[in-house]
Amino acid sequence: MSLKGGGLSFGHRALWQGLDLDIRPGEFLAVLGANGSGKSSLLKVLLGLLPLSEGRLERHVPREKLGYVPQQKNFAPDTALRARDLVALGVDGHRWGIRRDRRRVHQVVDGLLEKVGALDYARVPVGQLSGGEQQRLRIAQAMASDPQVLLCDEPLLSLDPRHQNVVSALVNQRCREAGTAVVFVTHELNPVLPYVDRVLYLAQGRFRIGTPEEVMNTETLSELYQGHVEVVRSHDRLLVSGIPEQIHHEQEEVD
Ligand SMILES: Nc1ncnc2c1ncn2[C@@H]1O[C@H](COP(=O)(O)OP(=O)(O)OP(=O)(O)O)[C@@H](O)[C@H]1O
């Protein structure tokens, strides 16, 4: 999947422009940037839900082979669907009604529930689960579709540190073992830092792309933000400070 000279604007506001991006099989790409920098919109462009304002998207992956973990929205408390049925929808959601091989579906679902640590609540209605528990199910559901490309929008949100590591390692395993291309939007780079091949950093209408070492350093981020941003490496963690407030929205006049 690739973007050639991709640009996305809303009104007069350009979120990003001139983006050439190849998303390669078996690659783990992290997408970083402040609130409103256009990370979720980028995933929607890759999914074909949002048209580019300029440039071209080349996608040679069938829709059902695109796994998507949307930005977290909790299920309504009265949602009766059980946890394991939600994950099963990932396996055969696009063939709903003709579930031919029940035993295989059960095996896949059980395996994924175990991997995300959700076996204990497999039969609980999803509306009764905590935000983090629901989030782990969404990740299992996206994995269940056997994706060639996995697009994750802040999948670590509301997870405790242990489950952040569990989910990061699981996504990495899928990437390495099945050659799935991963696009991982996150505000928390550290849990995925050992796995990330490249970082796309969006800021104030500009971007940088490269290895974590190339992008996550004082010089590059200071240039990107046009101010002093300090990046310190401590053991295997990155600490970033001095990121300026995000530019404000242009108010559109409404009569
Ligand atoms: N359909 C739309 N029409 C107008 N503006 C939009 C639309 N969709 C998104 N935007 C604006 O584009 C900007 C980028 O939104 P996006 O959700 O991509 O940001 P993000 O980087 O994912 O932010 P966050 O970290 O807060 O999730 C936001 O300021 C948002 O208001």
Automatic annotation (TrEMBL):
Name of the protein described by the UniProt record: Metal ABC transporter ATP-binding protein
Family from the record: Belongs to the ABC transporter superfamily.
UniProt keyword list: ATP-binding, Nucleotide-binding, Transport
Organism lineage: Bacteria, Bacillati, Actinomycetota, Actinomycetes, Micrococcales
SUPFAM superfamilies cross-referenced by the UniProt entry: P-loop containing nucleoside triphosphate hydrolases (SSF52540)
Keyword Transport: yes
Origin: domain of life: Bacteria
Pfam families with a match to the protein in the record: ABC_tran
PROSITE patterns in the cross-refs: ABC_TRANSPORTER_1, ABC_TRANSPORTER_2
Molecular functions per Gene Ontology: ATP binding
Domain ABC transporter: 1-229
Keyword Cytoplasm: no
